[in-house]
């Protein structure tokens, strides 16, 4: 349970904001998981929920996720002078969560039961789903050569102009 005032106020504002954006909504559900807010490096808060219990009973999903070491080797092999990272901010929140799945993602804040309408952070399959959808979109859009990990995309080139053009094509 969160008890520090310096945490309560920002989390309350964040929940109101997410609700007004339609990312979360009030619900009645037989499920409930505790919230687990995380402070970002910039000092802002990220609302995550401790889905350890849900994750334990969720069946495994077989999907290809890139290995970080392989991605590092691939980037090193490019030997480019310039690199740029594109971070799809709040990418999970752009992915609708099927209505029939929403009850299991319920959580409580200050006596009110909420659930996610968008892909939640903290669920074990969220990164895999997000990665796959972005990968498909990049493939359909004929994106220039890049490396992708979940919602981060890296492009490279020997000049800033080349990297900028690649980034614009991806965006």
UniProtKB/TrEMBL annotation:
EC numbers for this chain: 3.1.26.4
Gene3D superfamilies membership: 3.30.70.270, HIV Type 1 Reverse Transcriptase, subunit A, domain 1
GO molecular function: RNA-DNA hybrid ribonuclease activity
InterPro entries: DNA/RNA_pol_sf, Rev_trsase/Diguanyl_cyclase, RT_dom, Viral_Replic_Matur_Polypro
PROSITE patterns: RT_POL (PS50878)
Reverse transcriptase domain mapped to chain residues: 19-171
Main EC class the enzyme belongs to: hydrolase
Similarity field: Belongs to the beta type-B retroviral polymerase family. HERV class-II K(HML-2) pol subfamily.
Name by which UniProt lists this protein: ribonuclease H
Organism: Grus japonensis (Japanese crane)
């Amino acid at each position: 349970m969160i008890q520090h005032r310096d945490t309560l106020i920002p989390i309350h504002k964040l929940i109101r904001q997410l609700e007004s954006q339609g990312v979360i909504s009030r619900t009645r559900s037989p499920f409930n998981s505790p919230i687990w807010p995380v402070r970002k490096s910039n000092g802002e808060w990220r609302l995550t929920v401790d889905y350890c219990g849900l994750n334990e009973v969720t069946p495994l999903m077989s999907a290809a996720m890139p290995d970080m070491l392989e991605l590092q080797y691939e980037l090193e092999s490019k030997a480019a002078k310039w690199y740029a990272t594109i971070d799809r901010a709040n990418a999970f929140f752009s992915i609708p969560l099927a209505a029939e799945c929403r009850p299991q993602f319920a959580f409580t804040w200050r006596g009110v039961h909420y659930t996610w309408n968008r892909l939640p952070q903290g669920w074990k399959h969220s990164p895999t789903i997000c990665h796959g959808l972005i990968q498909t979109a990049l493939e359909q859009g004929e994106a220039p050569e890049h490396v992708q990990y979940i919602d981060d995309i890296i492009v490279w080139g020997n000049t800033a102009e080349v990297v900028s053009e690649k980034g614009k094509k991806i965006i």
